[in-house]
Amino acid sequence: MADHPNLDAARAGYAAFGAMDTEGVMGLLADDVVWHVAGSNALSGDYKGNEAVMALFGQIYEGTDGTFRLELHDMLANDDHGVALVSVSGSRGDYRMSGEKAAHIFHMEDGKMTEFWSFAENQHVFDQFWT
Predict the structure, then answer these.
(1) Among residues 105, 108, 115, 123, which is most buried (max CB within 10 A)?
(2) Average pLDDT of span 47-71
């Protein structure tokens, strides 16, 4: 049985993100995507449009000297929604984060992410990392 097309698209986007493949990531994002980052830190907030989201990704890579990594544990997707369970690792100055769990929830339309939310299991760790 073949996977749902939105699941294939989302997996490809996550793989592109991990490979720092800008074109591949842009292929997953709708032009008017809205990206929500939870918490109370320098990255928290809402990002509107794929250019703003790509700038956020640039901040993440730059702020971690390219050490930021997502390990995908599982992903589900249907015609409208998707969920990814991930572990996040990276270093920022003297601060290290290793295997912190997060859930990503996203809306899909025509094979593109139109809205995205990131929720950390331990938001305090993420806030300290990005403050």
Answers:
(1) 108
(2) 95
